[in-house]
Amino acid sequence: MFKKILIANRGEIAVRVIRACHELGIRCSAVYSDVDRTALHVLKADEAYPIGPAAAAESYLDIQKILDVAKRCGADAIHPGYGFLSENAKFARACTDAGVKFIGPAAAAMEMMGSKIRARQEMETAGVPFVPGTSCPLESVRHAKQVAAKIGYPIMLKAVAGGGGKGMRLVSGPKELQTALEAAQSEAQRAFGDGDVYLEKAMLNPRHIEMQVLADEHGNMVYLGERECSIQRRHQKVLEEAPSPLVDPDMRRRMGEGAVRVAKAADYSNAGTVEFLVDSEKNFYFLEMNTRLQVEHPVTELITGLDLVDLQIRIAAGEKLPFRQEDVVIRGHAIECRIYAEDPDNNYFPSPGRITTLLAPAGPGIRLDSGVYEGCAVPIDYDPLLAKLIGHGQNRPQAISRLARALGEYFVAGIKTNLALFQRILADEDFRSGKIDTGYLERILESNRDREGKPEKKEDAAIAAIAAAVFARLDVTSTASNGSTSNHGTGTANASAIASVWKKAARVDALR
Amino acid sequence: MMIYNVTINGAVYRLDLAPDRAAGRWHCQLDGRQLQVDAVLAQPDVLSVLIDGNAYEIRRERVETGLRIWVGHKSYTAEVRDPRSLRGATARADSGKGARQLVAPMPGKVVRFLVAENSQVEVGQGVAVVEAMKMQNEIKSPKKGIVLKLAVAEGAAVNVGDVLAIVE
What we know:
By secondary structure, chain A is α+β, with helices and mostly antiparallel strands. Among the domains of chain A are: 4-103, Rossmann fold; 132-201, Dna Ligase, domain 1 (2-Layer Sandwich), CATH 3.30.1490; 461-505, no CATH class. Chain A has helices at 11-24, 40-44, 63-73, 89-97, 107-114, 116-126, 141-151, 174-192, 249-265, 297-304, 308-316, 396-409, 419-427, 429-432, 440-451, 458-480, 492-511; strands at residues 4-7, 27-32, 47-50, 77-79, 101-102, 155-159, 169-171, 197-201, 207-215, 221-233, 236-242, 270-278, 284-290, 333-340, 342-343, 349-350, 353-354, 357-359, 366-370, 377-378, 385-393, 411-413. In chain A, helix 4 runs antiparallel to helix 5 (107-114), helix 7 (141-151) packs across helix 8 (174-192) and helix 12 (396-409) runs antiparallel to helix 13. Chain B has an eight-stranded antiparallel beta barrel with strand order 1-2-3-4-5-6-7-8. Helix content of chain B is 7%, strand content 60%. In chain B, strand 3 (25-30) and strand 4 (33-43) form a beta hairpin. Chain B has one helix and 16 strands. By secondary structure, chain B is mainly beta. Chain B is elongated and about 55 Å long. The longest helix of chain B is centred in the middle third of the chain and has 12 residues, at 83-94. Chain B has one helix at 83-94, and strands at residues 2-8, 11-19, 25-30, 33-43, 46-51, 54-63, 66-71, 74-81, 100-103, 108-113, 120-121, 126-132, 135-140, 145-150, 157-158, 163-167. Chains A and B meet through strand 17, helix 16 and helix 17 of A and strand 1, strand 2, strand 3, strand 4 and strand 5 of B.
């Protein structure tokens, strides 16, 4: 087993990996950029090393700096988390060359899955269904028109090297094809340095369901059930659950076996995820394979009772899978909410800043994987994911009730979050009956626009008025006694300083 | 007895509030109705309120536009006015001797300063422009005086409460 693992990441996932290391009795090293000196992962790690300025390209994405730290601190393995360098084959190869074990698949498997075209070609050979389209880059507008006419409009143009919605265009008819193709090609060129574009049949509002696979380095491979990830916005997942309300045991077995065929074709090892698009007739099509630990891995952990990060580390250390496919049993239901620092009143744009108050939920069936604490600053430079709140129950209704209850306990002030959105989703009839697809979230946001401004319970408004006055009165008392509230714990001195600032601001306003 | 005019989601409540001798107890008159309120600060911005046996965990959030009060899942925009202390504050601001700090009311970036160090400013004159989420906000001087110091560089990121400039 490893003696020391370097974690090449930040935020909640770095904390998640630190926890797994500590459970295994492995020392772990964190790395941090200038703005992350007091981030939670630095506080929780055994060792921590600076890797430069806030900009990710000069810190968390700098392969050389991270390998230098690994060498300096004597780490024998690196866990990349998700995002940043996790799917960078060059990094995986550089780790191997430096004699440090990369906790993930081999670089060759990452390269194959990183190119969507190559992945499609492999799927064709492996006999896994994929969305109809081309398995090679488009040569010309004429070529594109021929293929599009054969599979039928609407079609989707996608960058071969793509991701994150860049180089993607939806085309509803032949007239739009030329302009869309040129736009997609130039966008792909700018974003990825590779202008190659291919074409797929566009599925309108499909479901997005993915299958977790796990393979050791001795040829053993299992699937651990699916995750329903249809609730997303701008290609970013917001809420995930396992199992999917749509998938029955037979479909799970067929998808799982398909996913294992995909992974075997890539000679895959460690944890990976095969994504499928699913249409209204329950047909599933291979979309892509993610060669890393997913953000939403906890829902799979809760329903299988397995610890994926622990297993990732054991597999990388050369251990064999300690169970077989028939040992994998799915128990109950789990749902994850991604809590983002986003402003719901401003089109869900990122909302960085300092967290002044944080009340964390707990209790039966609740897991909180968080990367923040009260008083910490959420920098503007990285992904706005603050924490993942996961509810687990014997069945879907119980998971929903527990999650709704926990959301009521959860409170974050100082920055804006999308917490309130989850209360709406969990209370929504379509969600409760499992009627969700990739267009669901946009529809919810539209419909809720109309619902805003509904009258509130009168009694609660009166309670709010009384509380506001008591707060104001207590502010005066604490200012007069010169910061006596600092007995109350962390961040108080700062909070009362801010309070007087606000009071001052309010008075200045009143003067106008 | 302190009198507060509290606006909750646009509706105005008039409150007479006086602390009782027992800690945490308040005599409260809400629009003429007498209430016994038990309200204790559990942690900064978190108030435990007991009224007629009902328990509430009330949370206060400071947002760009003012205050937000949370009762359960629901939040209310709130504004508290205390006529007496306002008058006091006005008097103090006018005769204000000594340095006053200009602070950032929201997290953002200092786009530019509108005045130089050692220059003369009037009450309400713009001193700095702070950008948050693509919105530019002018931060105005609280008093007439000389700009002693510009406390941050143009282009710097600031948090709520960070000092931008000092006016004396």
